[in-house]
Design the sequence.
């Protein structure tokens, strides 16, 4: 294993040193080149869409010029002059003729300052001169369209389609119309001929414009090229598809594009989300004859084909790089085999030495370079190691004698430590008794003397008949006297020296709890503590009864002191198995202030106390040691402001020391 590890390590290092330029520098160079190429590629796409947008603008301007020229020719034509000579009806008939109107949706003859005409008509009429007609975009309201031609109002109406990333607006229908308005003065009159072409739903303009831009482009599939006219942010004429056979009329541009183009008047030349796909897009604002921004002109093509082509190129470059690595690494390893052979021989020798064959040596090697020198040095080092090993073996024998001596000293120290621990246990017992004694003495001394003295006097002074009448009262006095004797007896049992009562026995936890409450009753009453006991059938446990009683007394007194003047002490007993080990659980709950989280992990440390200037700080530490010694465990949980709970778990079996470690 050692030889294999070293061989792999050396090969890896040699491979790293040799291929570092190829593995690190070439990828960096390739990455920088690809990054610059992608940047230039994206710039090229933006340049393409900018060129397409300029073509669309030129085409749109050509339409305005063409229609203005046509209206001017009509205003100056002989047919129009003859119709004017025949009267208004002849003029109306001429202007309604589809052949005369051409691509225009309406032709209107009116005075230059006709107050009944829409304001935008008067504006475009005012811009026309005798020699030059005027042309431009205009927004006509629903009422204006109805006045010109009711059919135009219906054609202009578009239901708005909810569109991802579009700005939030209140209306759901667009009723206005974007119109190319042209005006030409009529010779030898104060009238002007006004023509208009409604762009809403005018798919002929869009399809022609799209074909002009993308039909002969070899780099872009004509199906991916799109063109759109916007009224503000609403698509009123487009070849963008919402579904396969439905154009995206009524859909809206994204809010970020709208803010830049309509809000700031700046063209947008970048990728943009169009209806449901990403396009390389160009947007330019459209202004009306007054110079106000009223819409946008858009051209763009799908980004996905170009992204796929770019990604394919990147993948090809990465694949080529990996192929170069796959060919180079085995070739290099084959050439480096001459270096690995002596190294493997050294590794094999070291493996034998590690297994105890200190006499193993590398011997002469064919390499006359640095590797050969290392092999000779290693043989000399192995000679020194063999000599040092002999010296260490001699020193080890002396060390064993010293260890035996120190072990004996440690055993002696351990015995002293056990004796000290026994003294600490007795000291804690005496400390507990000191806190109980004042209450017990008050409960015992005076009442016992009075009861016993008066009981004898009563019995001596009463006649047999009177004694028979007072038999119940006398029996009650006897019972109370017996109770006092029981208290004294329990106290004496608790204070009995440990060496006389340290054998584990089968102990009833309910009985121990009840005996403990008898001993601490006075202390609990002094602190106005209410006791609640909840016993559930539990198995007997193996423990020294007085030691368990000492633990419970310590916990009860600690709880009473923690609660101060008033509270509830709840003691619950019942069975509990832990990791398949049967046992019994005694839970001691108080309603005191609780223990701070930063102190909770230290409550079982020797000499640690939360009661300033009170106690030795050994009670809980000794209690934990007593319970652990019989295979049990004490744990604690506490909530600030709500109280503390101690859980005393003891095993049913005897000598289950491993259970306490769980």
Sequence:
């Amino acid at each position: 294993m050692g030889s294999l590890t070293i061989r792999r390590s050396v090969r890896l290092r040699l491979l790293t040193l040799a291929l570092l330029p190829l593995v690190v520098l070439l990828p960096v160079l390739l990455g920088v080149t690809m990054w610059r190429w992608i940047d230039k590629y994206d710039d090229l796409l933006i340049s393409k869409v900018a060129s397409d947008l300029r073509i669309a603008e030129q085409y749109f301007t050509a339409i305005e010029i063409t229609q203005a020229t046509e209206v001017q020719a009509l205003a100056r034509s002989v047919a129009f002059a003859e119709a004017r000579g025949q009267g208004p009806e002849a003029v109306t008939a001429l202007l309604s003729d589809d052949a005369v109107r051409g691509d225009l949706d309406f032709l209107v003859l009116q005075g230059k300052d006709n107050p009944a005409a829409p304001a935008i008509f008067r504006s475009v009429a005012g811009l026309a001169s005798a020699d030059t007609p005027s042309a431009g975009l205009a927004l006509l309201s629903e009422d204006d369209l109805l006045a010109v031609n009711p059919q135009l109002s219906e054609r202009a109406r578009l239901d708005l389609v909810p569109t991802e990333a579009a700005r939030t607006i209140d209306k759901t229908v667009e009723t206005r119309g974007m119109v190319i308005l042209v005006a030409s003065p009529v010779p030898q009159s104060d009238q002007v001929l006004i023509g208009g072409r409604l762009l809403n739903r005018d798919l002929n303009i869009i399809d022609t414009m799209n074909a002009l831009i993308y039909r002969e482009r070899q780099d872009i599939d004509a199906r991916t090229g799109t063109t759109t006219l916007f009224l503000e942010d609403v698509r009123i004429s487009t070849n963008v598809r919402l579904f396969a056979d439905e154009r995206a009329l009524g859909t809206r541009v994204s809010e970020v594009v709208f803010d830049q183009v309509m809000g700031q008047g700046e063209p947008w030349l970048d990728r943009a989300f169009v209806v449901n796909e990403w396009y390389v897009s160009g947007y330019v604002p459209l202004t009306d004859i007054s110079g106000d921004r009223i819409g946008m002109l858009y051209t763009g093509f799908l980004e996905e084909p170009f992204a796929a082509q770019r990604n394919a190129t990147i993948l090809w470059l990465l694949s080529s790089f990996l192929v170069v690595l796959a060919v180079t690494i085995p070739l290099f390893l084959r050439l480096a085999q001459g270096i690995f052979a002596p190294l493997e021989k050294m590794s094999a020798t070291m493996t034998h030495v590690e297994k105890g064959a200190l006499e193993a040596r590398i011997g002469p090697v064919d390499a006359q370079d640095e590797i050969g020198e290392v092999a000779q040095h290693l043989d000399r080092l192995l000679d020194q190691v063999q000599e040092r090993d002999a010296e260490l073996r001699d020193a080890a024998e002396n060390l064993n004698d010293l260890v035996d001596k120190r072990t004996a000293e440690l055993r002696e120290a351990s015995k002293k430590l056990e004796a000290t621990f026994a003294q600490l246990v007795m000291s804690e017992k005496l400390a507990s008794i000191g806190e109980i004694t004042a209450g017990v003495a008050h409960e015992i001394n005076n009442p016992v003397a009075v009861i016993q003295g008066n009981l004898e006097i009563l019995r001596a002074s009463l006649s047999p008949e009177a004694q028979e009448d007072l038999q119940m009262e006398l029996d009650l006095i006897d019972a109370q006297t017996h109770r006092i004797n029981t208290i004294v007896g329990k106290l004496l049992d608790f204070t009995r020296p440990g060496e006389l009562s340290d054998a584990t026995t089968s102990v009833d936890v309910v009985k121990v709890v009840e005996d403990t409450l008898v001993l601490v009753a006075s202390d609990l009453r002094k602190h106005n503590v209410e006791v609640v006991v909840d016993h559930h059938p539990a198995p007997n446990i193996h423990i020294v009864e007085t030691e368990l009683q000492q633990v419970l007394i310590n916990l009860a007194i600690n709880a009473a002191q923690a609660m101060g003047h008033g509270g509830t002490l709840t003691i619950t007993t019942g069975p509990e198995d832990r990791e398949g080990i049967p046992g019994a659980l005694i839970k001691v709950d108080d309603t005191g202030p609780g223990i701070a989280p930063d102190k909770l992990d230290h409550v079982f440390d020797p000499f640690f106390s939360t009661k300033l200037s009170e106690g030795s700080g050994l009670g809980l530490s000794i209690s934990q040691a007593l319970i652990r010694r019989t295979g049990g465990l004490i744990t604690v949980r506490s909530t600030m402001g709500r109280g503390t709970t101690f859980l005393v778990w003891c095993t049913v079996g005897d000598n289950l020391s491993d259970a306490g470690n769980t």
